[in-house]
Amino acid sequence: xxxxxxxxxxxxxxxxxxxDRYGRVAFGLVYRMLPSPEAAxxxxxxxxxxVWRQARSYRPERGSVRTWLLAICxxxxxxxxxxxxxxxxxxxxxxxxxxxxxxxxxxxxxVSAMRAERIRKIVGELPKEQRDVLxxxxxxxxxxxxxxxxxxxxxxxxxxxxxxxMNKLRESLEDER
Amino acid sequence: xxxxRHVTEDLPAYVLGALEPDERETxxxxxxxxxxxxxxxxxxxxxxxxxAAIGAVEVEPPxxxxxxxxxxxxxxxxxxxxxxxxxxVAFLRRPLPAALPLALAVLLVVAFVVVxxxxxxxxxxxxxxxxxxxxxxxALAPTGVNPNARAAVVIPTQGSAYLVVRIPAPPAGKAxxxxxxxxxxxxxxxxxxxxxxxxDVFTLPLTVPLSAGDGVAITLEPAVGSAQPTTEPVLVAxxx
Lengths: 177, 240
Fold this sequence. Notes:
The structure holds 2 protein chains of 2 kinds. Chain A is mostly helical.
Protein backbone atom coordinates (compact mmCIF):
# COMPACT_ATOMS: atom_id res chain seq x y z
CA UNK A 1 0.00 0.00 0.00
CA UNK A 2 1.33 3.45 -0.84
CA UNK A 3 2.36 5.82 1.90
CA UNK A 4 -0.47 8.31 1.43
CA UNK A 5 -3.02 5.50 1.24
CA UNK A 6 -1.75 4.22 4.58
CA UNK A 7 -2.08 7.69 6.06
CA UNK A 8 -5.61 7.91 4.64
CA UNK A 9 -6.42 4.61 6.33
CA UNK A 10 -5.42 6.05 9.73
CA UNK A 11 -1.85 4.75 10.04
CA UNK A 12 -0.01 7.34 12.18
CA UNK A 13 3.32 5.55 11.61
CA UNK A 14 2.92 6.20 7.89
CA UNK A 15 2.74 9.89 8.73
CA UNK A 16 6.03 9.40 10.58
CA UNK A 17 7.54 7.77 7.49
CA UNK A 18 6.39 10.72 5.39
CA UNK A 19 8.12 12.96 7.93
CA ASP A 20 11.30 10.84 7.67
CA ARG A 21 11.33 11.38 3.93
CA TYR A 22 10.30 15.03 3.63
CA GLY A 23 10.11 16.46 7.15
CA ARG A 24 13.47 18.17 6.94
CA VAL A 25 12.74 19.98 3.68
CA ALA A 26 9.18 20.76 4.81
CA PHE A 27 10.49 22.33 8.02
CA GLY A 28 13.23 24.14 6.09
CA LEU A 29 10.69 25.60 3.67
CA VAL A 30 8.38 26.80 6.45
CA TYR A 31 11.37 28.04 8.48
CA ARG A 32 12.43 30.28 5.62
CA MET A 33 8.97 31.87 5.46
CA LEU A 34 8.40 32.49 9.16
CA PRO A 35 10.06 34.71 11.76
CA SER A 36 10.92 32.13 14.41
CA PRO A 37 11.74 28.43 14.87
CA GLU A 38 8.73 28.16 17.21
CA ALA A 39 6.39 29.43 14.50
CA ALA A 40 7.98 27.05 11.98
CA UNK A 41 7.46 24.10 14.32
CA UNK A 42 3.83 25.01 14.94
CA UNK A 43 3.11 25.42 11.23
CA UNK A 44 4.94 22.21 10.30
CA UNK A 45 2.81 20.31 12.80
CA UNK A 46 -0.33 21.92 11.42
CA UNK A 47 0.74 21.06 7.87
CA UNK A 48 1.21 17.38 8.73
CA UNK A 49 -2.19 17.45 10.40
CA UNK A 50 -3.61 18.86 7.16
CA VAL A 51 -1.93 15.97 5.32
CA TRP A 52 -3.67 13.57 7.70
CA ARG A 53 -7.03 15.18 7.05
CA GLN A 54 -6.60 15.54 3.29
CA ALA A 55 -4.87 12.23 2.52
CA ARG A 56 -8.02 10.76 1.04
CA SER A 57 -8.23 13.55 -1.50
CA TYR A 58 -4.63 13.16 -2.72
CA ARG A 59 -4.51 12.23 -6.42
CA PRO A 60 -1.19 10.81 -7.66
CA GLU A 61 -1.94 11.81 -11.25
CA ARG A 62 -2.01 15.46 -10.12
CA GLY A 63 1.58 15.43 -8.88
CA SER A 64 4.13 13.94 -6.55
CA VAL A 65 3.68 13.52 -2.81
CA ARG A 66 6.62 15.88 -2.31
CA THR A 67 4.93 18.67 -4.26
CA TRP A 68 1.59 18.05 -2.55
CA LEU A 69 3.18 18.19 0.90
CA LEU A 70 5.31 21.26 0.22
CA ALA A 71 2.32 23.13 -1.23
CA ILE A 72 0.38 22.36 1.96
CA CYS A 73 3.33 23.59 4.04
CA UNK A 74 3.65 26.80 2.07
CA UNK A 75 -0.09 27.54 2.28
CA UNK A 76 0.01 26.90 6.02
CA UNK A 77 2.94 29.30 6.42
CA UNK A 78 1.20 32.01 4.41
CA UNK A 79 -1.97 31.55 6.46
CA UNK A 80 0.04 31.83 9.67
CA UNK A 81 1.53 35.10 8.54
CA UNK A 82 -1.83 36.50 7.51
CA UNK A 83 -3.48 35.63 10.77
CA UNK A 84 -0.72 35.85 13.37
CA UNK A 85 2.40 37.25 11.78
CA UNK A 86 3.27 40.84 12.45
CA UNK A 87 4.05 43.04 9.52
CA UNK A 88 7.54 43.84 10.75
CA UNK A 89 8.37 40.17 11.09
CA UNK A 90 7.07 39.59 7.61
CA UNK A 91 9.25 42.35 6.19
CA UNK A 92 12.31 40.80 7.79
CA UNK A 93 11.41 37.48 6.26
CA UNK A 94 11.03 39.06 2.83
CA UNK A 95 14.40 40.72 3.05
CA UNK A 96 15.90 37.34 3.79
CA UNK A 97 14.07 35.83 0.81
CA UNK A 98 15.87 37.72 -1.88
CA UNK A 99 16.79 34.63 -3.86
CA UNK A 100 14.64 31.74 -4.96
CA UNK A 101 17.27 29.12 -4.17
CA UNK A 102 19.68 28.70 -1.32
CA UNK A 103 23.21 27.35 -1.40
CA UNK A 104 22.35 24.64 1.05
CA UNK A 105 22.98 20.99 0.40
CA UNK A 106 19.77 19.18 -0.47
CA UNK A 107 18.67 15.88 0.98
CA UNK A 108 19.10 13.22 -1.73
CA UNK A 109 15.72 11.77 -0.82
CA UNK A 110 14.14 15.06 -1.90
CA VAL A 111 16.19 16.11 -4.92
CA SER A 112 19.24 14.26 -6.20
CA ALA A 113 22.53 16.17 -6.14
CA MET A 114 22.81 16.15 -9.94
CA ARG A 115 19.26 17.34 -10.30
CA ALA A 116 19.79 20.09 -7.74
CA GLU A 117 22.86 21.27 -9.62
CA ARG A 118 20.88 21.33 -12.86
CA ILE A 119 18.04 23.34 -11.26
CA ARG A 120 20.52 25.83 -9.80
CA LYS A 121 21.96 26.31 -13.28
CA ILE A 122 18.53 26.84 -14.85
CA VAL A 123 17.48 29.34 -12.19
CA GLY A 124 20.86 31.03 -12.35
CA GLU A 125 20.38 31.61 -16.07
CA LEU A 126 17.10 33.44 -15.53
CA PRO A 127 17.41 37.23 -15.68
CA LYS A 128 17.71 38.69 -12.19
CA GLU A 129 14.40 40.55 -12.41
CA GLN A 130 12.62 37.24 -13.20
CA ARG A 131 14.31 35.49 -10.28
CA ASP A 132 13.28 38.37 -8.03
CA VAL A 133 9.58 38.17 -8.87
CA LEU A 134 9.62 34.41 -8.30
CA UNK A 135 11.28 34.84 -4.92
CA UNK A 136 8.95 37.65 -3.84
CA UNK A 137 5.87 35.69 -4.89
CA UNK A 138 6.94 32.30 -3.58
CA UNK A 139 8.75 33.13 -0.34
CA UNK A 140 7.13 36.46 0.32
CA UNK A 141 3.60 35.42 -0.58
CA UNK A 142 3.11 38.66 -2.48
CA UNK A 143 0.59 38.95 -5.30
CA UNK A 144 1.62 40.33 -8.68
CA UNK A 145 -0.12 43.63 -7.86
CA UNK A 146 1.75 43.89 -4.56
CA UNK A 147 5.06 43.15 -6.27
CA UNK A 148 4.33 45.82 -8.86
CA UNK A 149 3.54 48.40 -6.16
CA UNK A 150 6.48 47.36 -4.02
CA UNK A 151 9.08 47.46 -6.77
CA UNK A 152 7.61 50.36 -8.75
CA UNK A 153 7.30 48.13 -11.80
CA UNK A 154 4.27 48.22 -14.15
CA UNK A 155 1.86 45.36 -13.37
CA UNK A 156 2.04 44.11 -16.96
CA UNK A 157 5.81 43.82 -16.69
CA UNK A 158 5.55 41.84 -13.44
CA UNK A 159 3.02 39.47 -15.02
CA UNK A 160 5.24 39.01 -18.03
CA UNK A 161 8.26 38.21 -15.83
CA UNK A 162 6.26 35.67 -13.83
CA UNK A 163 5.12 33.93 -17.01
CA UNK A 164 8.55 33.92 -18.62
CA UNK A 165 10.31 32.63 -15.51
CA MET A 166 7.77 29.92 -14.75
CA ASN A 167 7.63 28.75 -18.35
CA LYS A 168 11.41 28.55 -18.52
CA LEU A 169 11.53 26.60 -15.28
CA ARG A 170 8.85 24.19 -16.42
CA GLU A 171 10.27 23.65 -19.90
CA SER A 172 13.82 23.14 -18.69
CA LEU A 173 12.82 20.63 -16.06
CA GLU A 174 10.40 18.82 -18.35
CA ASP A 175 13.20 18.37 -20.89
CA GLU A 176 15.14 16.56 -18.21
CA ARG A 177 12.52 13.97 -17.47
CA UNK B 1 -11.86 19.84 -22.33
CA UNK B 2 -13.66 22.96 -21.24
CA UNK B 3 -15.33 25.14 -23.82
CA UNK B 4 -14.13 28.21 -21.96
CA ARG B 5 -10.97 30.04 -22.89
CA HIS B 6 -7.93 28.33 -21.41
CA VAL B 7 -6.20 30.01 -18.51
CA THR B 8 -2.69 29.52 -19.89
CA GLU B 9 -1.59 33.10 -19.22
CA ASP B 10 -2.62 33.13 -15.57
CA LEU B 11 -1.61 29.58 -14.70
CA PRO B 12 2.02 30.35 -13.69
CA ALA B 13 0.89 33.10 -11.29
CA TYR B 14 -1.85 30.82 -9.98
CA VAL B 15 0.72 28.18 -9.06
CA LEU B 16 2.77 30.87 -7.32
CA GLY B 17 -0.31 32.05 -5.43
CA ALA B 18 0.26 35.51 -6.90
CA LEU B 19 -3.17 36.19 -8.44
CA GLU B 20 -5.81 38.47 -6.98
CA PRO B 21 -8.77 36.63 -5.41
CA ASP B 22 -11.15 37.18 -8.34
CA GLU B 23 -8.52 36.04 -10.85
CA ARG B 24 -7.75 33.01 -8.69
CA GLU B 25 -11.40 32.03 -8.60
CA THR B 26 -11.69 32.25 -12.38
CA UNK B 27 -8.66 29.97 -12.84
CA UNK B 28 -9.83 27.52 -10.16
CA UNK B 29 -13.26 27.25 -11.77
CA UNK B 30 -11.71 26.58 -15.18
CA UNK B 31 -9.41 23.92 -13.75
CA UNK B 32 -12.41 22.03 -12.43
CA UNK B 33 -13.43 21.17 -15.98
CA UNK B 34 -10.29 21.39 -18.12
CA UNK B 35 -7.93 18.41 -18.07
CA UNK B 36 -5.50 20.16 -20.42
CA UNK B 37 -4.95 23.11 -18.07
CA UNK B 38 -4.91 20.75 -15.09
CA UNK B 39 -2.03 18.86 -16.68
CA UNK B 40 -0.18 22.14 -17.28
CA UNK B 41 -0.84 23.11 -13.67
CA UNK B 42 0.67 19.87 -12.47
CA UNK B 43 3.83 20.44 -14.52
CA UNK B 44 4.23 24.00 -13.23
CA UNK B 45 3.77 22.84 -9.66
CA UNK B 46 6.27 20.02 -9.97
CA UNK B 47 8.89 22.37 -11.44
CA UNK B 48 8.30 25.12 -8.88
CA UNK B 49 8.33 22.91 -5.81
CA UNK B 50 11.34 20.97 -6.98
CA UNK B 51 13.16 24.30 -7.15
CA ALA B 52 11.64 25.36 -3.82
CA ALA B 53 12.99 22.23 -2.19
CA ILE B 54 16.42 23.57 -3.05
CA GLY B 55 15.44 27.00 -1.76
CA ALA B 56 14.40 25.66 1.62
CA VAL B 57 16.75 26.42 4.47
CA GLU B 58 19.00 23.58 5.51
CA VAL B 59 18.18 23.44 9.17
CA GLU B 60 17.77 20.71 11.74
CA PRO B 61 14.08 20.38 12.73
CA PRO B 62 13.40 20.55 16.48
CA UNK B 63 14.13 17.37 18.35
CA UNK B 64 10.94 15.47 19.04
CA UNK B 65 8.92 17.09 16.24
CA UNK B 66 8.46 13.75 14.50
CA UNK B 67 7.32 12.11 17.73
CA UNK B 68 4.85 14.90 18.44
CA UNK B 69 3.39 14.62 14.94
CA UNK B 70 2.98 10.85 15.16
CA UNK B 71 1.59 10.86 18.71
CA UNK B 72 -0.93 13.55 17.85
CA UNK B 73 -2.40 11.17 15.29
CA UNK B 74 -1.82 7.82 16.98
CA UNK B 75 -5.39 7.49 18.17
CA UNK B 76 -6.88 10.17 15.98
CA UNK B 77 -9.71 9.43 13.66
CA UNK B 78 -9.22 10.10 9.96
CA UNK B 79 -12.20 12.06 8.59
CA UNK B 80 -14.65 9.25 7.88
CA UNK B 81 -15.66 10.04 4.34
CA UNK B 82 -14.15 13.12 2.83
CA UNK B 83 -12.43 16.06 4.46
CA UNK B 84 -14.39 18.84 6.09
CA UNK B 85 -13.25 21.20 3.37
CA UNK B 86 -14.47 18.76 0.75
CA UNK B 87 -17.83 18.55 2.48
CA UNK B 88 -18.17 22.33 2.38
CA VAL B 89 -17.24 22.37 -1.28
CA ALA B 90 -19.65 19.50 -1.97
CA PHE B 91 -22.42 21.39 -0.21
CA LEU B 92 -21.73 24.51 -2.20
CA ARG B 93 -21.85 22.56 -5.45
CA ARG B 94 -25.13 20.86 -4.70
CA PRO B 95 -28.13 21.78 -6.80
CA LEU B 96 -30.07 24.54 -5.09
CA PRO B 97 -31.39 22.95 -1.91
CA ALA B 98 -34.68 23.96 -0.39
CA ALA B 99 -32.75 25.90 2.23
CA LEU B 100 -30.97 28.11 -0.24
CA PRO B 101 -34.00 30.00 -1.60
CA LEU B 102 -34.90 30.52 2.03
CA ALA B 103 -31.48 31.96 2.74
CA LEU B 104 -31.74 34.15 -0.32
CA ALA B 105 -35.12 35.31 0.89
CA VAL B 106 -33.49 36.26 4.17
CA LEU B 107 -30.84 38.13 2.20
CA LEU B 108 -33.55 39.98 0.30
CA VAL B 109 -35.18 41.02 3.55
CA VAL B 110 -31.80 42.11 4.83
CA ALA B 111 -31.22 44.13 1.69
CA PHE B 112 -34.45 46.02 2.29
CA VAL B 113 -33.34 46.71 5.82
CA VAL B 114 -29.96 48.00 4.69
CA VAL B 115 -31.48 50.48 2.25
CA UNK B 116 -33.62 51.82 4.99
CA UNK B 117 -36.94 49.99 4.72
CA UNK B 118 -39.00 50.85 7.74
CA UNK B 119 -41.49 48.04 7.88
CA UNK B 120 -41.77 46.26 11.18
CA UNK B 121 -39.72 43.09 11.56
CA UNK B 122 -41.47 40.19 13.21
CA UNK B 123 -38.28 38.46 14.25
CA UNK B 124 -35.63 39.69 16.65
CA UNK B 125 -32.97 38.35 14.28
CA UNK B 126 -34.25 40.60 11.56
CA UNK B 127 -34.57 43.44 14.05
CA UNK B 128 -30.91 42.94 14.93
CA UNK B 129 -30.04 43.23 11.28
CA UNK B 130 -32.31 46.23 10.97
CA UNK B 131 -29.80 48.09 13.11
CA UNK B 132 -27.28 47.80 10.31
CA UNK B 133 -27.30 51.14 8.54
CA UNK B 134 -23.92 51.06 6.89
CA UNK B 135 -21.92 48.40 5.08
CA UNK B 136 -22.68 45.07 3.43
CA UNK B 137 -24.67 42.13 4.76
CA UNK B 138 -24.13 38.62 3.42
CA ALA B 139 -26.41 35.79 4.53
CA LEU B 140 -25.01 32.36 5.41
CA ALA B 141 -26.99 29.45 3.97
CA PRO B 142 -28.29 26.76 6.36
CA THR B 143 -26.82 23.38 5.39
CA GLY B 144 -29.60 21.20 6.73
CA VAL B 145 -27.83 20.29 10.00
CA ASN B 146 -30.11 22.83 11.68
CA PRO B 147 -32.52 24.17 9.05
CA ASN B 148 -33.86 26.85 11.38
CA ALA B 149 -30.46 28.40 12.06
CA ARG B 150 -29.86 31.80 10.51
CA ALA B 151 -26.78 33.99 10.34
CA ALA B 152 -25.47 36.90 8.32
CA VAL B 153 -22.06 38.52 8.13
CA VAL B 154 -22.13 42.27 8.57
CA ILE B 155 -19.17 44.00 6.95
CA PRO B 156 -19.23 47.65 8.02
CA THR B 157 -17.51 50.25 5.88
CA GLN B 158 -15.42 51.00 8.98
CA GLY B 159 -14.53 48.59 11.75
CA SER B 160 -14.47 44.83 12.01
CA ALA B 161 -16.91 42.36 10.51
CA TYR B 162 -19.29 40.46 12.78
CA LEU B 163 -21.96 37.82 12.61
CA VAL B 164 -25.60 38.21 13.56
CA VAL B 165 -26.75 34.72 14.51
CA ARG B 166 -30.05 33.08 15.37
CA ILE B 167 -29.44 29.57 16.60
CA PRO B 168 -30.44 27.38 19.57
CA ALA B 169 -28.11 27.25 22.58
CA PRO B 170 -25.36 24.64 22.11
CA PRO B 171 -25.38 21.48 24.26
CA ALA B 172 -23.45 21.61 27.55
CA GLY B 173 -19.70 21.68 26.98
CA LYS B 174 -20.14 22.79 23.38
CA ALA B 175 -20.00 26.12 21.58
CA UNK B 176 -20.70 27.59 18.20
CA UNK B 177 -17.44 28.36 16.46
CA UNK B 178 -17.11 30.74 13.51
CA UNK B 179 -14.58 30.07 10.75
CA UNK B 180 -13.15 32.22 8.01
CA UNK B 181 -12.75 30.04 4.92
CA UNK B 182 -9.72 31.27 3.05
CA UNK B 183 -9.28 30.04 -0.54
CA UNK B 184 -6.05 28.21 -1.31
CA UNK B 185 -4.52 26.16 -4.09
CA UNK B 186 -5.46 22.93 -2.32
CA UNK B 187 -8.91 24.03 -1.20
CA UNK B 188 -10.24 26.39 1.45
CA UNK B 189 -8.49 26.63 4.79
CA UNK B 190 -10.70 27.11 7.86
CA UNK B 191 -9.32 29.72 10.29
CA UNK B 192 -10.86 29.93 13.79
CA UNK B 193 -12.68 33.27 14.04
CA UNK B 194 -14.67 33.35 17.28
CA UNK B 195 -16.66 31.26 19.75
CA UNK B 196 -20.10 31.70 21.35
CA UNK B 197 -21.46 29.45 24.09
CA UNK B 198 -24.91 30.99 23.92
CA UNK B 199 -28.00 30.60 21.78
CA ASP B 200 -31.05 32.61 20.61
CA VAL B 201 -30.11 35.81 18.75
CA PHE B 202 -26.67 37.27 19.33
CA THR B 203 -23.76 38.96 17.60
CA LEU B 204 -20.32 37.39 17.29
CA PRO B 205 -17.34 39.56 16.26
CA LEU B 206 -15.02 37.87 13.77
CA THR B 207 -11.54 37.77 15.26
CA VAL B 208 -9.96 37.28 11.83
CA PRO B 209 -10.09 40.13 9.28
CA LEU B 210 -12.00 39.15 6.13
CA SER B 211 -10.17 39.31 2.82
CA ALA B 212 -11.81 39.47 -0.59
CA GLY B 213 -13.00 36.02 -1.59
CA ASP B 214 -13.14 34.62 1.95
CA GLY B 215 -16.09 32.53 3.06
CA VAL B 216 -17.55 32.11 6.54
CA ALA B 217 -18.97 29.05 8.29
CA ILE B 218 -20.29 28.08 11.72
CA THR B 219 -19.83 24.65 13.33
CA LEU B 220 -20.56 23.05 16.70
CA GLU B 221 -17.32 22.49 18.62
CA PRO B 222 -16.09 21.79 22.16
CA ALA B 223 -16.54 24.87 24.39
CA VAL B 224 -12.79 25.60 24.33
CA GLY B 225 -12.89 25.75 20.54
CA SER B 226 -11.11 23.65 17.94
CA ALA B 227 -8.06 24.25 15.79
CA GLN B 228 -9.94 22.79 12.83
CA PRO B 229 -13.66 22.15 12.31
CA THR B 230 -14.68 18.74 13.61
CA THR B 231 -18.36 18.72 12.63
CA GLU B 232 -20.48 19.49 9.59
CA PRO B 233 -21.07 23.23 9.16
CA VAL B 234 -24.46 24.50 10.30
CA LEU B 235 -24.27 27.62 8.16
CA VAL B 236 -21.99 28.57 5.27
CA ALA B 237 -21.36 31.53 2.99
CA UNK B 238 -19.14 30.61 0.07
CA UNK B 239 -17.71 34.10 -0.16
CA UNK B 240 -18.31 37.42 1.41
